[in-house]
Amino acid sequence: MSVSTAPGNAAGPSPADVRTPRQRARRVALISAAAAMAGFLFGYDSAVINGAVSAIQDHFEVGAAATGLTVSAALLGSAAGALAGGTLAERLGRLRVMHIAAVLFMVSAVGSMFPFAIWDLALWRVVGGVAIGIASVIAPAYIAEVSPSEVRGRLGSFQQLAIVLGIACSQLVNYALTQAAGGKTTGHLLGVQAWQWMLGMALLPALVYLAVTLRIPESPRWLVGRGRTEEAARVLEEIEGPKAGERIAEIRGSLARAAERRPSLRDLMGGRFGLLPIVWLGIALSVLQQFVGINVIFYYSSVLWQSVGIDQGNSLLISLSTSVINIVGTLVAIALVDRIGRKPLAVAGSIGMAVSLGAVAWAFSGASGSGHDLTLPALQGTVALVAAHLFVLCFAFSWGVVVWVMLGEMFPNRIRATALSLAATVQWLANWVITVSFPSMAQWSLTFSYICYASFAAVSAVFAVKFLRETKGTRLEDVDADAPAV
Q1: Backbone angles phi, psi at 293, to 5 degrees
Q2: DSSP letter string, 342-362
Q3: Which of 124, 154, 178 is nearest to 28 (CA)?
Q4: At the topology level of CATH, where does 19-216+257-470 sit?
Q5: pLDDT per residue over 54-109, tens digit each?
C-alpha cells in the first residue's frame, strides 16, 4: 500500500482504497511519519554541531565567544523560519512549506561543508536554521490536523521521536567519522576534514524528506479553509473513514468565525496582556522547555566531557549514549501520552529534571581548574555522568514530547499555524539565549549554570500543576469552544 497520493491529485484515492480501521490507522501513521521527517532533520542539523565545536575552534582559531555565536547562529535562523513558517503554511499550504524547508536543508548542508571563514559557516548555519524553524512549525501542525483525536498524542509524538532519532544519528555519524579520521575531528577523509563531513551529511536526509513529502496529502483542515472540500473529503476518507461529510461540517463550523482574510499575527491579539491567554500559555511552554538547559547537553556535551579529562573519541561516544537515553525516554512518552495524559507526564518530568540538574550542579562544585583544564574527583565525575543521563531521560518522557504535542493541538483551528509559529519563534530565541550564554557561563561557573537550569525545572513543575489544561482525547474542533477570547 502506498503512503498516499501526491498532493493536488484530482482523482485522489477512492473509499475502497482504505477498507478497515486498521488500514486507516496504518495509513495515517505512515503519513504522520513522513511529515515527521522534518523533525529528523531538525534534530540532526541542530545537534551535529556538537561533534564539530572543538574542530571549528581549532580550524578557524576562534575563542569561546565566537564559537558560541557560530553554534547559536542556526537558532537565530530558526526563530526567523518559525516566525515565517506559520504565515507561509496558511498561504501556501502545509506541503509546499515542507518542500521549501527541504531545499533549504540541502543548501545549508553543502554550504556548511565547505566554509572559507567563520562568518561564512555562521551564514550557512543561519540558512539551515531557517529550515529548522519552518520544520518546527509545520510538522506538529500538520500531524495534529491529519490525526484522529484518540491517537493524536501518539502521532504528535512522532515529531519528537524523529528529533531524538536525528540527534542520535548525528552523534553516531560524528563518532564514526571521527574514528575513521584517526580519532580526530580535524582528521582528513578523502581530502576533507571529518567535521566538514559531519555538517555535509545532512544532505542525505534532506533528499529523503523532500521525496516523502511529495507523496503525502494536504491537510484536510487547510483544504476546507480554502474551499477545496472535495479534496478534503477524500483525505478524510483515507484517515477517518466514511464519516468525512460530518467531519467537514465540524471543520467548517470551527472556521466560521474566522475572517475572510488570511490569518496573521493580529489574530493572536486580545486579552489583558496584548495576546490571547492561550497564546501566552504556548509561549510559556516554549520558554520553559528551553530554559531547563536541555540543548546544552546536545550542543556542548562533547566539549564538556573533554574538559573533565575524557578524550575526544570517548566524549563523542558518551554524547551518543545520551542520545540513546533520549530515544528511550521518547518511546516511554509515546506509550503513555494518550493513556495517562500530557499534564502528569509534564509534572513528573519537571520534578525529575530539577533533582538531576541539582545533582549535576553539586558534582561540578567539586571541580578544580577551569576551561579545558577542569578536573572532577571520581565520585563527582560519576554523579555528573549519571545525573546528566537521568536529566535527558526525564526531559525526553515529559517536556520533550508534551510541548510539541500540546502546541500542535492547544490552539483553535483558525489561528493554529500562526500561533504555533509565534510560540516556536520564542522557543528558538530562548534556545539561542541558553546556547550563546553557556560557553561564557561555563568558563565562569558550571555550578551556577546548572543551578539556574535546575531552578527553571522547578518553575516548570509549578507551571504545569497550575496552568496546564489536559488535552488528551480532545478533538481539534472542540478547542474553539473552550479557548478563551477566541
Answers
A1: 85, 20
A2: HHHHHHHHHHHHHHHHHHHHH
A3: 154
A4: Growth Hormone; Chain: A; (1.20.1250)
A5: 788 777 877 767 776 777 788 788 888 888 887 888 888 889 999 999 999 999 99
